[in-house]
Specification:
The structure is a homotrimer of 429-residue chains. With 429 residues, chain A is mainly α. The first copy, chain A, contains 14 helices and four strands. Chains in contact: A-B, A-C, B-C.
């Protein structure tokens, strides 16, 4: 019996060692599954860039298709590279945050202690995944601008703007919230970026179309002249891919694979997108008396932008209303912009700025734990800096190198003059 | 020594607590990884809606492209919303199932006990994931109908049909099997929905084209007149995306990330798709004496539909035969429908109904544990209700608001008359 | 007290059993998450086939669109089926490897011991996942050839070539490294296949365009005549999807979900792709004096191919340079090929062969643990066998059934003659 006890104790001691090992492997498994989820989310946000390219090339005129695709192809490259060089360390300065207003952890990625940056973010995924997920986010802000100013902006002006806006402006204002800055301390809430990503891009887009002016022949004698897009299937594909990507944009913003939170976020996201489309459909029909596919598509995007700030704190039921209102707002906003002769090729300002503001305020309305007033402060503070920065950059570029292509190039199309190929060459016997 | 023993025992006692904790975390990890897998599957099924849009807009005529995309964009919205309001609780009534024939757990989603609905489904994923995955499924049934009746159906008639068919008919018959109803008790097997999804949609499509009649000028003087689709690349993209999405459709139907079962399902799915394409290729060549891409593409879809009922119980070897037969059947079915002047724009009835039946019966043929006779009962019971319901809804709609657009609109195209834009506007200098 | 101790010991004994169980479940969880990751990677590699289809149909002329899509649709089917019948067991012969040069584990898949093939590959994922992931890889080699020889090759010649090349040549040379053959023993390194996949395909493409000759009217009087592609949006979509798929191609080649390694691979992959695009942009501008989207797109692909051999061993910093050089090389290579009147419709040889070689050598340059000389041996050995095999197959096919379509078919387009439909039919009122 004594021996039996001793053996059992010895066995227990051996197990004690194993338990520590097992426990370590359990923590490692959680890290692994979180990281898998965050990588999937990263891929989904990446493919949003194809979504944006589809929407913009689809809604843009066929004589400028290659130009639009050129911009949209370079934008994620610039986003990733500037984020590697400077942006990531500017948006997430960590210990280098100074007085909650500005911080910079130095140029280039520098691996934190611990080899491969395992469990870099609490709860767990790797440093590399964090960088790549955030880099894919960063590029979306520039892409939003791209859609608004399309068909008349010089490519080098656009590229310089993008480098500055994505490399400096976006991470600077972003650090106020996601980098643990003063807006975060104030209690401002923006889950996945209705303000930090979408309205930042939207303010850039608004500044751009104000400085560059409308396309030639868009507003003639008090009338709005239609400029039909090259391919509605392409634009539709773009919207579906954006929704697809938004599962990663919002779902990944949970920053872990936590089952309850992530899957709930996917539901509110989908419900808001659906009601946004319905809102765009009904409003488009009431206003234009037609079955306006463009308004359904932009309504879906509006619903997605609208729920982005509060996808984890707004209930599924209220998310229906957030989406519906966004779908109505996007149509009214587009009409309003046209009244002011602000020519936005794809409706980027209406989708991302108007509904980005709406979504941020909606958090203060539908989530009792957040203050509408604080939400408003965040909208105004980030909006002011984003808009004035974009306005300044565009104005300086306009003076120094010129923002706009020549009248001849715009009229005849950018593709033949600047790219030497046409977007579509359909010759059949 | 005594102290040593006591310490060890104390340590063991402490470990005992830890072991319970570790064990709990292990269960939580399994829930997390299952949930990640089910979310990925959900995204994949979502993107099938872009696949359907591509197939239908690609194979439809260019004068109706916007109309087709309008229907295909609204369909998933309706699917998600009706499933939120009523469908989910009708298809999975749980304790509210009455006599195995009908059940309804009440309007709107209602979170089950336990906060976020964690581990709602045994083995584990969340309530939200379950809802969203099933909602994406539901919308596919309506999309199948959409492809068949395209180019001549009134948009409001289609939308009303979709709300009723997806919101009521699909979940009602579905509950007989997946809601633990009488077909489930009988031993009927339909893994991922050859019958419950595809043939339900296919019966709806058949009812639709019977009531609405062929497109003008499709059958003239005993001849079948080709109506060339607007874009073969778009249709091809659609089929690839459907296969891509089918990895989630079939893989997610395992309802966990169980490695052996899920990955085996992916293999049978891919083998059947491949042989389906080969079957369509060969049959298309024998019958039409040409390299018929449409038949290869529909052959792939046929193989996918065919293996869907038994992807987890049919061996990889037999899945080759199931796919090949489906690829042959889809061509013969298309020819037969044309003989009866049943005009199906994308071959939806042949792909989803014919091969849905074949796949369901194939379970009884190639899986010894299932009865062919029981499979046949399921096919007939669900077919009868789906077909008669769809026939009734379409007939009533035809009488009350009219199913069909005017002859002028059909001839000149739905896009210019109802949507005010054209699908493609390619103007090059 | 004694009882207390006994109880504790009894409890510890019970826990000891539980610990073994828990430990087993922990191992099972790791298998599950690894398998989920590998399945996601498989889907991503699958969708690369849509990417290739997009690039090839987009850059090919509109009169041959259906023909290109026909080839690209059949290629993955052939890849999956030949790999099921013979390829998998030829590339990974396991114990059947003879003298490190050749091995064959028998026809058809045969499940290894252990039921469902759980934990088949050490560290863990299933036999089925392994097969499917590798099958998706195999088909890419053939697809590369497809793009180069497009617009003039007979469909049956192409299909026979593909069956032999994917079914025999690709797995044979591949087994030298990934099947644990002599190149593996020698210390040759090719992480995800710059040589084993991309340059094998590239050599096949080069052999193909040498034997079949340029398209009619491509090189006239010392000039290179542009043959504009049908749709630049389609080609752009293809490149985005290829990058998207490459996350699985490279990320899945880690063969587990190991967080540190996989996420680091994704970063080097993205950085190289980005710099490749920049390299193509700058070189295209310097050489052609235009904003050449085709060169940006091929530059991205070049960067991806370039980093593929060393994505896990080259540092993020150096991966920028690897990508940039690839982006420059791809333009210079395209110019060189044209000098020799080697007509490559999509630039497949420049992207996959030139940059595949560069990437393989880059491992020897930027990773101190690998020998540049050994890398060169691998490039030459695999290149020699791939090129000579492809050359022989194409030559024999040319003699026996003829490689090339008739002059009339080529001039008027393959679609109307061989497929009976046109790629685009855009008729608007």
């Amino acid at each position: 019996m004594k021996e039996g006890v001793t053996e059992l104790i010895a066995s227990s001691a051996a197990d004690a060692v194993s338990l520590a090992e097992v426990s370590g492997q359990v923590a490692q498994n959680l890290l692994t599954v979180n990281n898998v989820w965050m990588m999937v989310a990263t891929f989904l946000v990446f493919i949003m860039h194809l979504g944006f390219a589809g929407v913009e090339a689809g809604f843009g005129q066929s004589k400028n298709t290659v130009n639009i695709l050129f911009k949209n192809t370079l934008t994620p490259l610039i986003g990733i590279l500037t984020y590697y060089v400077i942006g990531f360390n500017l948006m997430y300065p960590g210990d280098f945050m100074l007085g909650e207003w500005f911080g910079f952890a130095g140029f280039f990625l520098s691996l934190p202690e611990g080899g491969e940056g395992l469990a870099y973010v609490e709860g767990g995924y790797t440093y590399w995944t964090d960088f790549l997920f955030q880099a894919m986010f960063a590029a979306t802000a520039a892409t939003i601008v791209s859609g608004a100013v399309a068909e008349r902006i010089k490519i080098n002006a656009y590229l310089i703007f993008t480098v500055i806006f994505v490399g400096l402006v976006y991470p600077f204002v972003g650090s106020w919230k996601w980098g643990a800055g003063w807006l975060d301390s104030l209690g401002f809430y923006d889950f996945a970026g209705s303000t930090l990503v979408h309205s930042v891009g939207g303010w850039g887009a608004l500044a751009g179309i104000m400085i560059i002016g409308p396309r030639l022949g868009k507003y003639v004698g008090g009338k709005i002249i239609d400029k039909p897009g090259s391919s509605v299937p392409l634009a539709t594909m773009g919207v579906f891919l954006l929704w697809f990507g938004w599962f990663g944009f919002n779902g990944g913003s949970v920053l872990s694979a936590d089952p309850g939170t992530v899957s709930r976020v996917l539901v509110t996201t989908s419900l808001a997108a659906s009601m946004g489309g319905i809102g765009g459909y009904i409003t488009g029909w009431l206003v234009f008396k037609r079955l306006d596919l463009g308004m359904v598509l932009n309504g879906i995007l509006a619903g997605l932008v609208g729920i982005t700030a509060g996808a984890d704190v707004i209930s599924p039921g209220w998310s229906l209303l957030v989406g519906l209102v966004a779908g109505v707002l996007v149509v009214l906003s587009a009409i309003t912009l046209d009244k002011f002769k602000l020519d936005d090729v794809v409706g980027a300002v209406s989708v991302h700025l108007t509904c980005g503001i709406w979504g941020t305020l909606a958090v203060g309305i539908f989530s009792p734990e957040f203050s509408l007033f604080t939400q408003l402060i965040g909208v105004i503070a980030i909006g002011a800096v984003s808009f004035l920065s974009a306005l300044s950059i565009f104005k300086i570029l306009d003076i120094v190198i010129g923002l706009r292509v020549s009248e001849q190039h715009e009229t005849e199309g950018l593709d033949s003059h600047e790219h030497g190929i046409r977007g579509y060459t359909i010759i059949l016997e």
